[in-house]
Amino acid sequence: MQLIFDLLQQTAVIVVIAYLFSKSPAMRYFSGEKLQRRDLIVLFFVFVTFSILGTYFGLPIKGAIANTRATGAVLAGLIGGPLLGTAVGLAAGIHRYFLGGFTAFSCGLSTTFEGFLGGMVHLFLIHRNRPEQVYSPMVAFVTTICAEVGQMLIILALSRPFADALALVRVIALPMIAANGVGAALFLSMVRDQRKMRDELGARFSAKALNIANRTLDIISRGFNLETAGQLAEIIHKETGVGAVAITDRQKVLAFTGLGADHHSVGHPIRSPLTKAAIQDKEVVFADGQRTVFRCPVEESCLLGSVLIVPLKIGQDVIGTIELFEPTSKIFLNINRTFGEGLTTLFSHHLLRSRYEEQKSLLIESELKLIQAQVNPHFLFNALNTIIAVVRKDADQARRLLMRLSSFLRTNLKRKSDIVSLGEELEQIGAYLEIEKARFGDRLQVDIAVAEQLLGLQVPVFTFQPLIENAIKHGISTLLEGGRIQVHASLGNGVANIIVEDNAGNYCETVKNQGLGLNLVDKRIKNLYGSSYGVSIDCEPQQRTRIMVRIPTESEERNNARPDH
After folding, report:
1. Structure pTM?
2. Is residue 347 domain-resident?
3. Which of 135, 167, 370, 472 counts the highest number of beta carbons within 10 A?
4. Does residue 96 belong to any structural domain of this protein?
5. What percentage of the chain exceeds 90 in pLDDT?
6. Which residues have C-beta within 8 Å of that of residue 274, sequence separation ≥ 6?
7. DSSP result, 372-406
8. How far is CA 548 from the centre of its chain?
9. Bridge partners of 64?
10. Dihedral angle at the C-alpha atoms of 279, 281, 284, 287, nearest 10 degrees?
11. Calpha distance 421→535 (Å, rounded)
């Protein structure tokens, strides 16, 4: 019985070492993720050390050593698999062999066996889809007991003289089985508790990060200025609980909240050399208050003693900083440091996206103006010539055409949105075609047949006007008589197919080669709804040209569609 207590005391020493290990950075190797080669090498040395310490802390008994060596070998196999377990067992076994004694060989071999057994249990649990039980204290306890029973049998089978081996096993079997089983279970219990604590802490901070993101992304999408910076600083300060939060641009303080707000004034130029260094070098600056102390450049009696300064970037350009402060009486937690850096990265990405959306909006506006510039001069020139010719014969018709032209140009100039209803687009086309009919007379017939239920369909502005103009310019204008343009639509599977067809068949190339108008129409539809939609051309030379526009009709499809580039 005394030997059991002595071995449990030795186990307690190993457990203390294991506890200190669990608090070290090496704990990350027990994260539960698939171990890489470097991880296995680190764990090999860790568990070999445990096993060798178990041997050295052992107690001499009848020419042998009662020890806790099995704990390291079994745990290595359980956590790292057969390769790691066998390697640790072999290394610890070779060390035991060179210590000598009539059980040197059998103990060396049995330690290798114990590591291998732990590895086989690991494989069994993985193949049964129960990887979480690898870190179960009960599994470690039972596996180690089985391993120690195996060791006793190996000692009896290989150690000579047998009578001495039997006498030894009678003395050490129960104490070693109990001590090693308890030691392995305690070690994995600590590992499991540490993992649980880290998971809970990570979940808590993830929830906090999501909450901050939820509350701030709408704010930051409105730009980076005094108003939005103040709102961001208040939210970050409340959620993180740090001593103070500051936000700057490249020259001045945009916001400051928390300790020191009485002298860190908004609008004042940046005076801290640490902030200037972070902006200049585009790198995070951390003054932990111990190795590097933050000294307030404004007030000597300032209570702030540590700071994390993270550059706020759009692409590679620093536009400002976010700074988290702690008072001199409080340690700056590493988790707050990681949290602050991650939060700033999130803001940087969102600012970049906001700028992209702004540039995209400007591009769309430029494209609209480009289409207007392409359509209006040709049309206006032809329309005025037509009205000049008509005014001599029919003043009333000329007046109607002028009113149509005025309405057409006014609508074009007022269009600011990128989206209009199909009904509005067809109405504008009607004004355009009325003037073109006066120009071509009987050479142009138009048939528009679109179901009323589709008139509310939202389409990109200036989608159909370039198509109609192409049909007239490249098609009908080349015919001496019988020119016909048809506009009709079909609906199915959440997609509207709107077709503009002429009977000339004079332009049969792909959209890509069809000039600026069709290119821009196709590109804008794909940008809005995705590559499944857009413009396609079907042509029979000298017979017909059919241009089909595919646009989604269901709101869910329209919301989920994304451009592919």
Report:
1. 0.47
2. no
3. 472
4. yes
5. 23
6. 285, 287, 294, 307, 309
7. HHHHHHHHHHHHHHHHHHHHTT-HHHHHHHHHHHH
8. 37
9. 61
10. -90
11. 18
What local confidence, expressed as pLDDT, does residue 18 receive?
Answer: 64
Cβ neighbours around 46 below 10 Å, total? 20
* Selection from 57-71, 259-273, 414-428 with the highest mean pLDDT: 259-273
With contact defined as beta carbons under 8 Å apart, do 71 and 85 qualify?
no
Indicate the length of the chain as a whole number. Answer: 565
Kindly report whether the peptide bond that precedes residue 460 is cis, defined as omega within 30 degrees of 0: no
- Tell me the C-alpha to C-alpha distance, in Å, between residue 234 and each of 140, 227, 245, 449: 49, 11, 8, 58
Query: What angle, rounded to 10 degrees, do the helices at 162-220 and 2-22 form?
Result: 30
Instruction: Tell which residue, 451, 446, 457, has the closest CA to residue 500.
Output: 446
- Backbone φ and ψ of 455, nearest 5°: -70, -25
Strand 317-327 vs strand 244-248: parallel, antiparallel, or unpaired? antiparallel
Query: Mind listing the pLDDT tens digit for each residue in 457-495?
Result: 888 887 887 888 888 888 888 888 888 999 998 888 888
Count of domains forming the chain: 3
CATH label of the domain that carries residue 117? 1.10.1760.20
Do 185 and 264 belong together in one domain? no
pLDDT at 561: 45
Q: Which two tokens stand for residue 558?
A: 């329209």
Q: Give the CA count within 13 Å in the CB-facing half-sphere of 195.
A: 16
Helices (H), 308-394: 334-391
Range of the domain at 316: 221-332
**Axis-axis angle for helices 70-80, 37-56 (nearest 10):** 160
Answer whether residue 411 is part of any domain.
yes
What is the C-alpha to C-alpha distance for residues 184 and 137, in angstroms, rounded to an integer?
7
Q: Is 210 inside any structural domain?
A: no
- Tens digit of pLDDT for each residue in 319-352? 889 899 999 888 877 666 676 777 777 776 666 6
